[in-house]
Amino acid sequence: MQIRKASERGHFKNEWLDSYHTFSFGEYFDPKHMGFKTLRVINEDVVAPGAGFPTHPHQNMEIVTYVLSGELAHKDSMGNGSVIKPGDVQRMTAGTGVTHSEFNNSQESPVHLLQIWILPNQQSLKPGYEEIRFNPEQKHNRLCLVASPQGHEGTVKIHQDAYIYASLLGGSHAVEHRIEKGRGVWVQAISGVISVDNILLSKGDALSIINEEYIKIAAEEDAEFLLFDLK
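Below the sequence we write its predicted structure tokens.
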């Protein structure tokens, strides 16, 4: 197991964006942190009111957006347009090429989100879009599957052997996860404090796990986190 401390992430800030990069991204490059298995990007972004990312292109990537607070307005070249709120999980398959924009939908409050990129299992896929809402009760004191390669159980479909779980753990509660041989797990702490087999993770910290069969994640206080199970 290896900890990725929040304070050690790459950081970019300008007048409208405050962004922390778990893995190499943009002008931040660290050969020791190029991704984990097929997980390529986790950016924690805070976007100022009324500001955002103007229209820009992507290719050959599975892009998942997870809003933590505020509202994010999305538009893309496939004709999709929506406002993503906390609880929504958005998946965009960039495939042969898409353009999109993402703006804070509020003129008063910032929007806080995680942008996640996963390498697809094949190149030049047909671009696609999907958005599903998960209420807090679905994530309360359990691992709630929100993305999977089959798109089953009401999850968004990722074109990769990757599973994403979201959880809201109350203080003193715990969940367990079994890891199949050859797979790895990435735990990304979002808020509060959790322990993974007695390793403490606070907001923004992460833990990579390989060569383990089983992990237990316990809340030291009310906490939110994501778990990635990857081939």
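The chain is about 0% helix and 55% strand.
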